[in-house]
């Protein structure tokens, strides 16, 4: 082979390596081995809302001991703020992908801590760049290179329970999101209603034609 051909083959091999390295971990392949809790620490605790700039999230995590002995490779944990499905609707840039390199669900990092089976806590003042939305908290157990090995989160698998709302500086409530989601369900509902009305009309017409 000429040196040029060898160079070409080498760069192809390198490219293949890079693209393999770029493929991320599949979220579905991860076990839920961590327990995670998040509490809002707010000046106005009665409202149940967390305001950026002033309020805090107190996040606690620990290894769930029913998975005894499976945490030998965990080195650190990464604590992240994640959009609930209701705040992802019609927003491609927040989309959930199973490939964690492409996933945009948990784009905001909160903290990184050393992994210990007994767990730890962090108190995070919600930064002003956080958009008003409905959220949950997820914690990834990672190895020394930062590759995800397992996770835990404050919500259930379907991401519908235990969610909380963060209010941005402008005070625009995420209930607008909820309204939008309800509205789109409503539109589908009215479209279906319309279509079935059409079908009934059509059947009546056909019936008449057959008489
Ligand atoms: C998840 O748990 C199962 C059963 O304990 C184990 O066989 C599997 O290797 C674990 N997966 C990962 C990615 O650690
Ligand atoms: C710990 O894991 C077990 C088995 O998956 C699960 O049933 C239990 O709910 C978990 N505990 C917590 C506190 O998440
Ligand atoms: C606290 O929140 C409640 C409920 O949203 C509201 O009625 C009340 O005015 C708030 N208090 C202060 C001091 O902001
Ligand atoms: C908990 O985290 C804090 C800050 O990241 C750290 O200083 C402390 O040593 C940790 N505690 C344990 C038990 O690892
Ligand atoms: C989660 O969502 C799936 C699909 O929408 C549904 O079949 C399942 O019953 C839900 N599970 C829970 C616990 O809500």
Automatic annotation (TrEMBL):
Coiled coil: none
Gene Ontology CC annotations of this record: plasma membrane
A Gene Ontology BP annotation from the UniProt entry: response to nitrate
Signal peptide: 1-23
Parts of the chain that traverse the membrane: 178-197
Swiss-Prot/TrEMBL keywords: Cell membrane, Membrane, Nitrate assimilation, Signal, Transmembrane, Transmembrane helix
InterPro entries in the cross-refs: Transptr_NO3_Nar2
PANTHER family registered for this protein in UniProt: HIGH-AFFINITY NITRATE TRANSPORTER 3.1 (PTHR34806:SF1), HIGH-AFFINITY NITRATE TRANSPORTER 3.2 (PTHR34806)
Function according to Swiss-Prot or TrEMBL: Involved in nitrate transport.
Family note: Belongs to the NAR2 family.
Name the record gives this protein: High-affinity nitrate transporter
